[in-house]
Structures are given as structure tokens and as C-alpha cells.
Amino acid sequence: MAEKISNLDLADMLDSDEIIEAFLTEAMESGDAKLIAASLGTVARAKGMTNIAKKTGLAREHLYTSLSENGNPTLETTLAVLKALGFHLAPKHDATG
Questions:
Q1: Pfam families in the record, alphabetically (predicted)?
Q2: Do the beta carbons of residue 88 and residue 80 sit within 8 Å?
Q3: 21, 30, 53, 66: which could join 73 in a potential S-S bond, CB 3.0 to 4.6 Å?
Q4: What is the pTM of this model?
């Protein structure tokens, strides 16, 4: 049983735009750059990394590396991937200060 759980890929669960949006929102709200990069990588895998690479004009290998737990994508890469996924960054005012 443990073997099956360890082979679980979160990308397989991201099967609707609503789930993907909630997943990315939670990652963005964490403020954790590594979590955000890894989450974008998970979504890119869910949507097809080859497809995202074509839409962004970036090499698939570059995306796998940049959008991993240890990756550190540039803002340019992050914005290109978000655009390819149909999302964008938007400022949000935090009234708490």
C-alpha cells in the first residue's frame, strides 16, 4: 500500500480550472517562493509540460528545473508560465497592514 501512495502525483488531481485556481491561490498566498515555483511546476505537468513549453517558448527541461522544489525561476519565466496557463499576477491590497 505504501508503494502506491509514494507514487501519487499531485498533478493527476488537478483536473479542472477551478481546482487549479484554488491550488495556485493557496500557493501564492503562502508567500513561499519555493512553494509557488513547485506549485506552478505541478500545474504545468497537469496541463502538459510540452504544451506549456511551446506556449512560452521555453525549453521543457528549463521549465522542469525552474519549476521544481529546488528551482528558482525568473520573474520572466513565472509570468510566461502563468500566461500559458491562463492566469496573471494581480496586486491585492492587504488592509491589515
A1: dnstrm_HI1420
A2: no
A3: 66
A4: 0.84
Say which amino acid occupies 10: L
Residue appearing with cell numbers 522542469: 64
Cell of residue 44, nine digits: 504545468
| Cβ pair 50, 82 in contact under 8 A | no
Please report the sign of the dihedral spanned by the C-alpha atoms of residue 14, residue 17, residue 19, residue 23: positive
Show me where the domains of the chain are located.
Answer: 17-85
Identify whether the C-beta of residue 11 lies closer than 8 Å to the C-beta of residue 20: no
Task: Report the half-sphere exposure of 40 (CA within 13 A, side-chain side).
Answer: 33
Q: What angle do CA 47, 48, 49 make, to 5 degrees?
A: 120
